[in-house]
Known about the structure:
eight-stranded mixed beta sheet; about 650 residues; ph1033 like fold; Arc Repressor Mutant, subunit A; alpha/beta; globular
Amino acid sequence: MRAVGWIDKTAAGWVITDAGRRALATHPNDGKGLDAEAGQAYRAQYRANKARASQPTHRSLLAAALESVEAGQWTTKAELAEAIGADVGTVEAALYEDGLDASHRVLTPGDTASGAVLLPSGEMVPTRAALEKEGVKFDESGMPDESQHVRGQDLRAYLEDRGLVAQPSRRAWLVRGSSVDGHDLIPVWRQQGFTSLRASKLREVEPGIRRPELKAIVDEDYSQTSYAAKAAKLDEFHSFLSRIQMGDLLVTTSQGELYVGTVTGPAEYVKSGDGLSNLRRTVEWAPEGFDYGDLASEIKARLQVQYDVVEMTQQLDLLEKLLAAQTAVVEDDEPPVQPVVTRELTLPEATDELAVRLNVDRAWLQECIDLLRDRPQLIFYGPPGTGKTFIAQHLAAHLAGDNVRLVQFHPAYSYEDFFEGYRPLEEGGFKLKPGPFRKTVDAARESPSTPYFLIIDEINRGNLAKIFGELYFLLEYRSQNVDLLYATDDDIGFTLPENVFIIGTMNTADRSIALVDAAMRRRFAFVPLHPSEPPTDGVLRRWLAASDLDVGVADLLEELNRRIEDPDFKIGPSYFMRKAMHQPGGLERAWRTAILPLLEEHHYGDGTDVRARYGLDTIRARVAGRAASDQAGSGGGEPADPA
Length: 643
């Protein structure tokens, strides 16, 4: 009865709860039968608790999803989070704490694999080197090859195949057929009511086949095909055979038109005479198509993905409105009105999970988001180690998912590197190639309701006027256009979309914020991150407590920063937020090799004995003296200075 909430034990003894009184009221005959009902309720609750306990946790789902990311492949934290139904912070915490073997294959959106990874052998190597050793290729800007990218829908499919996550009641899919070996199959599809894949080399397999079994078949049947092409075939065949279900919505494009239909049958093999449509599904197509130019930008952006089978479930609601417009009864036989469906550009609110992951207050994060809503350019500035880049990456990932790029400015960085410029070709000559900012803008223009972020690390190390050029104007006046440096006579001017956001980081130990020109200051919101001010001042203590480590290390950092007079050279908490520092001898080693060299550079030539003033033994003595003074009730007087 206690388990089902009818009675409870308090300091005064056992009491009947309100739920218990209601149960008694339904058994007026001296409570007869109440024990039997309590037993039934208890058994029902037991079964429910057991079912919940048997559900896979986010960590077990993450481990299972990573099994599908093989050597030579990579994915992102945001896509893993989407696949397992968690937030990015949960994924990061599990990757960090559980030490999964494939964790180095998981990148932060916009990351260039610039970190390091601990191999099972115990060797610490750069992440990029580990990925390249496994076969991952990187382009000239340092980004991993997209053809080796395992996407969120593939991770989700793998979990669904294993029965670890439930399938949605309905999905939407794009199946291409307008250029199959030079033939447009769409008129035949619509006339005969089906969709198809060529599948010219694939043996006949059962619909619903699981991905691992299908992979072995594709590897054998397409053995002469490149690795990237086999991976694409596996995704397409698996979706067509197993993931597409009857009742799913299906779209295709041809001659500037989008056609919508509903899947009505299972996958089947039909030996087509021309060999172009051997694997088929029946489809009930809507009678008319929709002009490509009238489609919502979000749909058009998804149609740009260059695979033969593309999941479009995120656009399901928009596509269902198109289908409804086709199937609705229209009076007076007038043609249906093409619905123009748009979504408003919004930035998500800050969450408690993100605040816990970043060890800052939710209210501070929300203020950063509000600043971006008001002015889509923001700079985090402060000394090294205050978490500027870390917060920028995770905040951007929270707001924009995988639509994040990261670049780092340096004195040699130029407009051509950042936006666009002519680059030599192997065969001779030059070609105008886009840089990371141009790529971000082009992607954002295709999906105006979706936020896109560009993170500029060490923004003050570059010559900003040289790098931004005429784009400086657009940072403040986005509704207007400018002529680009490399514009042609056909260009009508360039505008900066409202859904492009920029977060910069500025290391004040390299150059004071006061040296940034007024034009830059006017176009960006500046958010300080200083070790002795919120939110940074409490980060280390929170992290140590959450990690069950010695919080006394935070006292050492606070005492060290009290002794540093220049606020731009105070030491940030991230130097102490590495597990290696909290191993035996780790603090002493890090203090000697990371902390003191920074301060020696700061005091170079001024005669300060850095080791005597800032050495670990000195700081420990100061902390101990301060604690002794507090215990003696002296009001926190300053202890003697060992220096």
